[in-house]
């Protein structure tokens, strides 16, 4: 009861800030139930004058709500299937720039992690050069003269995220109980995915491990690299890696002045990302310009491994065949791959799905390369997912959204970049390698290993099957029964759930009015 009221109070505050900043103007009330439409109308009454354009309203509200919601907004930017492509694009520009915490706290964190003062670990330890929602970065110099980046977790950030995520989880569960569309889009799974992502981001040893794996995968790539972590000084709250001297990809004029080939850099951005996703199944999922540099040798350098994406072999094949199908206009094959991967329910028609895919692909081939927008392509794809009852695949949506960001970065370097021609060599090489004779032999090897593992577990599996069949047979003879107490408990739980759902809406409205009165 108390925790529910606490969640309602936090939700009311969130609703008030969203309403005050004008973010509710982004919601289409026609798709909402009557009670929710009433709350939206009530919220619009307290909208602040001069709230700004839609691109700034939501970002301003999330920034005002604090670090947890800034991170949530950045995460929603990877879910255009939930918030729509326009809002996702606006959220992609959300600045993860927070006020830095004091140097005294940074030094205390280093001393707690290393068991000695910062001066004992570093010859120099400078002021923060960047401060984000979870951590901030300092430039330092080790005793041997090597320059390093020191990333330090914000004090108390775990407790803050824990409280805010609990409130988000409460709202997602309430939405799923009342909305079939919310269940299809898996609101609860979205919050849980965010919770897992944040949990990993708040253990900087895991980020060091991601950077280490990423560096190992890309060590043969001559035009791409990542900073190497220092395992001896890295701890749960502290990450030490090499300092990158380079030019940010966002500074196009500086890149041009330094003599870099901008179109070649644009191609490198696209092809590097596709290599990591398709070849390695492990890719940087936050490739905005602030995380990308060009070093003196012209290599692309990606920093900040806090958000990484993974793809299994099946998903990598799916991605490669889908891209190649669009490139070659083989829409039938694109549709078949969706069905083979199990992404489209089998009761739908392959031919109907191929027709829908053609509606996405053909407009691409009728335009010049610089007129093709990956964002528009994905908008159509997400509409199709709803039409054909496709459940949300979090790993694929993150991949697709990263592709949009990567395309945007590459187009700032070369406005006429041809996304499909640039992608074709990487995709073709992977398909040739993995679907050719060598790839089939490797697939056969994987199948044999799986079969051997299954045979080794066969006696245990048979035993479990016999027990389950015995229980089913017993139940079929005597029926499935519930005692009176269980039936009454189910009835009470269902009644309480419905009661709380209705009361929740009214309490939120009352709390909003109370906040407005005392604001």
UniProtKB/TrEMBL annotation:
Keywords: ATP-binding, Cell inner membrane, Cell membrane, Kinase, Membrane, Nucleotide-binding, Transferase, Transmembrane, Transmembrane helix, Ubiquinone biosynthesis. It comes from the Bacteria. InterPro entries: ABC1_dom, Kinase-like_dom_sf, Prot_kinase_dom, UbiB, UbiB_bact, UbiB_kinase. Residues 123-481 form the Protein kinase domain. It comes from Bosea vestrisii. This is 2-polyprenylphenol 6-hydroxylase. Belongs to the protein kinase superfamily. ADCK protein kinase family. NCBIfam families: UbiB (TIGR01982). It holds the Pfam family ABC1. The chain crosses the membrane at residues 500-518. Pathway: Cofactor biosynthesis; ubiquinone biosynthesis [regulation]. The keyword ATP-binding applies.
